[in-house]
Design goal:
The complex is a heterotetramer, with two copies of chain A and two copies of chain B. Chain A has helices at 19-31, 57-64, 75-87, 102-114, 156-167, 188-197, 214-225, 259-268, 277-288; strands at 10-14, 34-39, 47-48, 51-54, 68-71, 92-95, 118-120, 126-129, 133-136, 145-152, 172-177, 203-209, 230-235, 272-273. Chain A is an alpha/beta fold. Chain B is an alpha+beta fold. Chain B folds into three domains: 21-92, ATP-grasp fold, A domain (Dna Ligase, domain 1, 2-Layer Sandwich), CATH 3.30.1490; 96-222, 2-Layer Sandwich (D-amino Acid Aminotransferase, Chain A, domain 1), CATH 3.30.470; 231-375, Rossmann fold (3-Layer(aba) Sandwich), CATH 3.40.50. The two termini of chain B are 37 Å apart. The chains are: A alpha/beta, B alpha+beta.
Chain lengths: 290, 378, 290, 378
């Protein structure tokens, strides 16, 4: 079992002929993901790693029955790409692109939420269901099937945790990078609800960072709705206020969004908080007796 | 990106919000000339991208050109919370009946914009929120529908305004939201919005945070960036496309990925050290980027050791290791490096780096301990 | 029983101090409707027919627990008034005002539909549940409680039918005027679904007119979902194409929206179609054996 | 409200859509002057608010000033489907490679805007819809999000455009939607949008329907109303705030309420007569409005009888009856009136009118029969 994507996912790649899109399409295909179509306006008829290219998402969906999209187009075209995917009826849209304007995302996320469409990202590594489907850029060689659900605002920090889990022989149901932007399509609670409902997920790893209050909201949610053991980590304890730490959303502003607040909220919710990333896999191993 | 008060007010004025007819000056003589043009009593205000300048003596009233020049001389060059004052704003002084707070701010959690107002203007809204939360009135704007006149009315009547004043307040709310939207801002604040003696409203101070991700479509705003507010290292990093933030510790950090970079700083502190910087080199090996990153770190004389923490994912660890070695070949330094590479081909990477006489560690925690120890010995 | 409004409805009047608002507030109060609040910006503290006036809908709702609003403000302020009522959490908003710009209503109706808020109108006479509540301008003296649900795009034509039914001793559950504009908050099908679900409604009268295709959509809906006898009438058989017949929505354009098409759709759906308005009450009487 | 082709194209041009550089003329001499300014071959086009002017001979090519003047003389004053030609548009003639249809139109049922396009431009879209529906490509615009670039691409690729042409088409789609929105239009149509010899696109004909309810915020558009396209009776009615439409029958109709007015016309026809007009006097008794309404009806010499159908609701029937009598007291006419008043105080109303020697009837059907009979006797 898994959440959001699996071996039945019929994936479409928007921006497939671009450098990033083509590169990661190769990796997704190699991983065994069913990549059924790509879209680049004006390039219909071409193929990338054997995947046929269409001019529009609507054409691609009509021809291939795609049911999810992953987006690698440049930031200034991303809102349009997401809305095109939504308009074509795709229920899952994963947006890797970093640097999408916040006001674009305000419109896009509100519209998609109202239509019941799941958007993951932007500015995220995507998601992977080990052994079934890789949608985005999470390395396929650092995961394996197993009982742990992983959700994170980070990229490489998540890879580290996945790698450490896998090294210990602990696999994952699905790993979801929700992205480091201030306005995200999918929040921690959306993923936590799915992991809680997924019978194959036995425990959950949640990796937060400074900025915003989504970790606090997630902690409340976990306290009330999640019965599975949860291991957490918050990055940015040493980050100064008012400075953007790489991710557009990783900023302490007006005295809120600090790692201390978030860690305290995690602890109050009964989450097993790791002091440093190396501890995460060890705590998981202890909890699930692996 | 943050901009100065005078820039914010100039932008607000363009959207119809009443602002004082002041001008910015970089020398005492310029300040005097502005004051002569304006006439009457003026206020001389330090332009720095930090709060608390009033308490620090960066805002002074002055009557007459002589006094203005003297006050400007005092303020220019002043250090306010680590920011040097390079410019002062000379505004006409106005008679203030009362002060209002008004701001449009991104609400990340709700994915909406909140407009907040309070009759307790002139102080930090966080302070009001802590001491008298009921004094703050809020409306939430649906980005799909936009601001409506009723939002302005709810706020105006909510803080006890009425009549023509409520009408003017509603227009200013609409103008502020328009500015916030048009400028791709994440914060547009007027504090204080003052009630003048005749009952009309005027924005006496302004603050705008701009969305860096939207600057590509706001070329005019990009030009407002104050180079004096950036350290040399931050400028170099920005131009090289690196995410870099200056800190004041002694352990340089070079990491791929923002979350991992923060975690690396945190572990450094956990091990008793203190990070000298946040630095995310981004994805891929890119030897030239690694080299620039190293030069930026090493130009800080406080740096006593460097902790390199790389996760090899789709990019192979051995490639990253070679990139680091190539970069180090071009840099002359005796600062000790501790390198920790994990993930794809990490073993090969460690072998390559060991051959180059670099300390390596299998875990981040151990690497941080080694970097802290290396720094302590210097 | 009834639909949408009844004796528990706590009504708020937007534009209560205006000429129309004040006049009809008097009639609504006299009818026995629970009119709990009025709103006119800047007139808080006043009273109209004993109803307290507030500056904002939010204030009025907080003070009185109003759960429905009727709007009499001028057309250029109507979109704002509707959105204010929606923002204050009112689940039912009835808009009498005529002449609201179509592009305003496109935004307003789409937003309200997504939020699950019922908007009736604009450019409508409102609705009345005989003996319980009158929301709008339908005369209270021409209705009586009984088993017939009435829905119509027209005003006085509906009054005629209500009057004729009442004269024959046939009462009504609720009469709903959905209004004559091209973009409406409530469509025929929305009301038909409620009448079908209302156990007290034994038969339904539907009065359509030229323009648009809502009558055809209603006919399809009736054929598939409505088991109660339906009597219908379409006004505008003699209307020329391309001319607006009073109502902004009553126009035959591009050859569609004709009375002939609509009447045919009604007949195909098994609706008892009256040839002229005088026949409607007679057919209802025959159908329900009154 | 509809506007002329030349007005529509002028507006389109303001939003960036390429249109021919023509000008409108009201005399053959003016047309000649325009042609001289433009130079080369031109097309002279009748400006009337109806379709089918091409088939009616209202569009003619002309080469040289003499020919233009002659063609303009032929077209000006022409009657096209009851519309007299008062103006011609003189446009430069262009070499047309192919013709496209493009329009933004209100979709009442979906509460959205549909943008439609087809490679079969130059003919009515209804005709294409009937004969080759698959040739029409459509996108639906969510008013809360607005038009996006992908909408233009879907339409462009959908009708087989590509490359730079698809790009220009997409821009024109965006400009047309912008015009449609900004002008409060319910239809904005380019037919044909022509492909020129060099592959670029140009709007050769334009049609715009404006939302009457939005004219209050479009004062510039209100000024585009063509008084020549309105009958004198329609103008009088509009100025008096009455809803009135001229028809060509013999039974004048005076009714309160639009739906009831249509129903009254329908019953008139059902009884063998034919309505002379649609007229809704609106709510309330308002003797002055009733009088104006009567004057408008009676100025039509074809009117042989008048059917007054009033529903007394909150307004009492007896008040309405008195209003009618007062109005009739000021008008000198021998046309027979049949009055039917129902609803509140209808009996009193009938008594009042009976005393004034007016025919009354209890039902609409009976009233219509009486009005038809009265007309037949004259």
């Amino acid at each position: 079992m898994s959440i959001l994507v699996d071996k039945h996912t019929r994936l479409l790649v928007q921006g497939i002929t671009g450098r990033e899109g083509a590169f990661h399409t190769g990796h997704m295909v190699d991983y065994g993901t069913q990549v059924v179509a790509g879209v680049t306006p004006g390039k219909a008829g071409e193929a990338v790693h054997g995947v046929p290219v269409f001019n529009t998402v609507a054409d691609a969906v009509e021809a291939t029955g795609a049911n999810a999209s992953v987006i690698y187009v440049p930031a200034r075209f991303t809102a349009d790409a997401i809305l095109e995917a939504a308009d074509a009826g795709l229920p899952l849209i994963v947006t890797i692109t970093e640097g999408v304007p916040v006001h674009d995302m305000l419109v896009v996320t509100n519209s998609l939420v109202q239509r019941g469409i799941t958007l993951v990202g932007p500015n995220c590594p995507g998601l992977i269901t080990p052994g079934e489907a890789k949608v985005g850029i999470i390395p396929g060689n650092i995961v394996r099937p197993g009982p742990v659900g992983v959700v994170s605002r980070s990229g490489t920090l998540t890879y580290e945790v996945l790698y450490a889990l896998t090294e210990r022989g602990i696999g994952q149901t699905t790993a979801v990078g929700i992205g480091g932007d201030p306005v995200q399509g999918t929040k921690f609670v959306d993923v936590l609800a799915r992991f809680q409902a997924d019978p194959a997920t036995e425990s959950i790893v949640i990796i937060g960072e400074i900025g915003g209050t989504d970790e606090e909201v997630a902690a409340d949610y976990i306290a009330q709705h999640v019965t599975k053991p949860v291991v957490g980590f918050i990055a940015g304890r040493t980050a100064p206020p008012g400075k953007r730490m790489g991710h557009a959303g990783a900023i302490i502003s007006g005295g809120t969004g600090t790692a201390a607040e978030k860690t305290a909220a995690f602890e109050r919710a009964g989450i097993h908080v790791a002091r440093h990333p190396d501890e995460i896999a060890a705590i998981v191993a202890r909890l699930i007796g692996a | 990106m943050n901009i100065h008060e005078y820039q914010a007010k100039r932008l607000f004025g363009r959207f119809g919000i009443p602002v004082p007819a002041g001008e910015v000056a970089t020398t005492p003589a310029e300040a005097r000339a502005v004051a002569e043009r304006i006439g009457g009593r003026v206020v001389v205000k330090a332009q720095v991208l930090t709060g608390g300048r009033g308490k620090a003596g960066g805002v002074k009233l002055a009557d007459g050109p002589e006094a203005v020049e003297a006050r400007a001389r005092e303020i220019l060059g002043m250090d306010i919370k680590g920011h040097t004052v390079h410019q002062v704003l000379v505004d006409p002084a106005v008679a203030i009946a009362s002060e209002i707070y008004l701001a449009a701010v991104l609400d990340r959690g709700q994915r909406r914009t909140t407009i907040m107002t309070s009759r307790q203007g002139g102080v930090d809204i966080e302070e009001v929120a802590a001491t008298d939360p009921s004094a703050i009135k809020r409306v939430t704007i649906d980005p799909l529908v936009g601001l409506q006149p009723f939002h302005g009315r709810r706020l105006a009547y909510g803080i006890g305004l009425g009549g023509a004043q409520a009408g003017q307040f509603g227009r200013i709310v609409a103008q502020l939201y328009q500015a916030y939207q048009s400028l791709d801002a994440t914060l547009a604040e007027i504090n204080p919005l003052v009630v003048l003696a005749d009952g009309t409203l005027m924005a006496l101070d302004g603050k705008v945070n701009l969305d860096d991700s939207a600057l590509f479509r706001q070329p005019e705003l990009e030009a407002l960036r104050d180079p004096g507010e950036e350290t040399e290292a931050e400028r170099m990093a920005r131009e090289a496309g690196l995410n870099y933030v200056d800190l004041d510790g002694s352990i340089g950090c070079l990491v791929n990925g923002a979350g991992l970079a923060m975690a690396t700083m945190d572990v450094t502190q956990l091990c008793g050290g203190s990070p000298a910087n946040f630095l995310d080199i981004g994805g891929g090996a890119q030897a030239d980027k690694v080299e620039t990153a190293m030069r930026i770190i090493l130009r800080d004389p406080r740096v006593k050791s460097v902790l390199v923490n790389i996760f090899g994912g789709i990019t192979r660890g051995d490639e990253v290791a070679r990139g680091i070695l190539a970069a180090l070949g071009n840099i002359d330094t005796d600062v000790p490096f501790v390198v920790r590479i994990v993930g794809t081909n990490a073993a090969e990477a460690r072998a390559i780096l060991a051959g180059a006489d670099m300390r390596t560690a299998p875990t981040l925690y151990e690497a941080a301990q080694m970097a802290v120890a290396a720094a302590a010995g210097r």
